[in-house]
Amino acid sequence: MEIVFYWFIGLLCLASLVIYWIDWRKTRNRVKLGQAVLAFFCSFLVLGMAGMETYDRMTTNYIVETGECYVVDDRSSKGSSNVTLWFGERSYGFKEIPDVAYGPGQLFSCRATMTKQFQSGIDYELRSMEGELLFSTE
User: Fold this and answer.
1) What is the three-class DSSP state of 69?
2) 50: Cβ–Cβ under 8 A, 6 or more apart, which residues?
3) Is residue 124 classed as helix, strand or coil in its secondary structure?
4) Which residues contact 33 (CB under 8 A, 6 or more apart)?
5) Residue 76's pLDDT is what?
6) pLDDT at residue 53, as a whole number
7) Which pairing describes strands 133-136 and 62-73: parallel, antiparallel, or unpaired?
8) In angstroms, what is the C-alpha Rg of the chain?
9) Is 7 exposed, middle or buried (0-12, 13-18, 19+ CB in 10 A)?
10) pLDDT tens, 1-34?
11) pTM for this entry
12) Which of 26, 39, 90, 121 has the fewest CB atoms within 10 Å, counting from its CB?
């Protein structure tokens, strides 16, 4: 659903680019030219992100991170991501909140899958240090 949202916003930016460009061609107003340039950069950025994400998911171009990790709830600070898995200094955002006790003091044996280019979280699993499966998004 997130990819569809990126594509929708990117296409809206592209449509605004066309509208601002047509207005600029009629009026030769600098403000309209500036709006067209801004719409171009916005559409380039958003469609670029959507394209990378779509390519990664279509080609199953994923990276997998395994090892000890801990989970931090970041709903208030990062907006769309609900939790962050920290593997030492590296962190990755995921949507689904685990239904086990977690926090910076709680270490798990983790396996996380992200898209390679955009590094957005696909799924993850948390295991106890003994190897017992505690939570999985798969």
Assistant:
1) strand
2) 3, 6, 7, 10
3) strand
4) 20, 24
5) 60
6) 84
7) unpaired
8) 20
9) middle
10) 778 999 999 999 999 999 999 999 999 999 999 9
11) 0.65
12) 26
Average per-residue pLDDT in the chain?
A: 89
Chain position carrying tokens 């403000």: 31
Asked if pLDDT for residue 118 goes beyond 90, the answer is no
- Whose tokens are 């390519």? That residue is 55
Query: Is-contact 47 55, C-beta < 8 A?
Result: no
Name residues whose C-beta falls within 8 Å of residue 91's C-beta, 6 or more positions apart in sequence. Answer: 84, 85
Distance (Å) of CA 95 to CA 11, 17, 31, 80, 120: 25, 32, 40, 7, 10
Q: Is the confidence at residue 78, as pLDDT, over 60?
A: no
The C-alpha angle 51, 56, 59, rounded to 5 degrees, equals: 115
Beta strands in the chain (DSSP E): 62-73, 83-87, 90-94, 108-115, 121-127, 133-136
Q: What is the pLDDT of residue 9?
A: 95
